[in-house]
Amino acid sequence: LCLCQCRMVCKEVPAETMYDVLHDIEYRRKWDTNVIETFDIGKLTVNADVDYLLIYRKDYIIMNYSVKHAKYPPKKDMVRAVSLQTGYMIQSQGPSHCTLMYMAQVDPRGSLPKWVVNKSSHFLAPRAMKKIHKACLKYSEWKQRHNPGFKPWLYPEQATLPSIPLSELSIQRAESLENIDESSLTEAQEREDSD
């Protein structure tokens, strides 16, 4: 699978707003039509859940990759994609502009040939970035109506997630991906896997 990389200057979007939009799960359900289900499972430390990292100044890095957790086994009639590495870098370009850089290496699994995945990533990634930019332009207004002070990605004391020991997680590595095409699972297999 190829590594897809994109860069976009986002006028009228401060870096802080971009960072909030990429973290706000409630808002993501509104603007990202590709999300079927999303929720937080837990936190590793007071400042880190499984999928993000805040760095210095007004620049932000958000990185994620797929992990397996015994409490969240495969689901019937679903194909679980694997993020080998996915990330955003947000750089402030002043008080009202930022640059968004996106990198992704994802295996959607299932029956899609790798060449189709590689080819489609070259137009799907830029389309996704435009969608993110559009969502950022609407975020301030939306957030004012939806729990405006709640930002646990910025204020760890607001987080109510349970702690997850690292020992409960295992990384999905590219060289050792098992078949996780879940569309052929039966209900019995699903129950057996979760016991």
Automatic annotation (TrEMBL):
State the InterPro entries in the record: START-like_dom_sf, START_lipid-bd_dom, START_lipid_transfer
Q: Which GO terms describe its cellular component?
A: cytoplasm
Q: Where is the START domain?
A: 1-141
- Which one of the record's GO molecular function terms can you name? lipid binding
Q: What is this protein called?
A: START domain-containing protein
